[in-house]
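Re: the request from the purification team.
They wanted to know what the chain is likely to look like in 3D before they choose a buffer screen. I agreed to run a prediction and write the result into the notebook, where they can find it.
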Amino acid sequence: MKTLSIIIPVYNEAKTIHQVLKKVYAQRLTGWKKEIIVVNDGSTDETRNLLRTWEKSVTVINKQRNEGKGSAVSLGIQKTTGNFILIQDADSEYDPADYPALLKPFSNPDVFVVYGSRFLGPHLSTMFIYAQGNKFVTMITNLFYNTNITDMETGYKVFRKKVISGITIRSKRFDVEPELTVKILKRGYQIYEVPISYYGRTFREGKKLTWRDGVIALWKLIMYRFID
């Protein structure tokens, strides 16, 4: 039986973390075992207290200070024991009901990486500038690395563990998305995309990604073309 390690980086998501964990825990995946690893990235709200109620069901790692998503993902990967790794955001934008669609392509032994694309599936309309910035950095990714994906910044990325076990993640924050994508492509792996549903939040609702992260992502796409 295959084991899926689900890494959930979380920072100040007291409003959503309990519901997200309920959905992740409830997913029944035929032929798969689940390992759930929550990395609390120095939350200052009630997230840590809420996670105490889950400590018998999932692995909870509490960091003392906030460093960012990349740091939390890197730590989570180090703790995984499964042969497949999925990254799950702790907000309510991504639906664990999409797990079967994300895992199905791995029945083909030639598939090593699967991305869930928000632009191929049904989604709530999101902020125009945000969406266009996402499409721009994705276009640059395709141009620089001769690929043809639609959503480089997606929060749903799934890998065979051997794909990323030898990758050193240097990014601390949201720039982990372009870093992982570039390093995977430079190692010769193709990315298989499947449509997913997406429920985008506004900044008022707690969205943390800003235009500055888009600029950083563009820089990292260029930088990692020449290093690592």
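For the purification team: The chain is about 35% helix and 20% strand.
Please add any questions underneath this entry.
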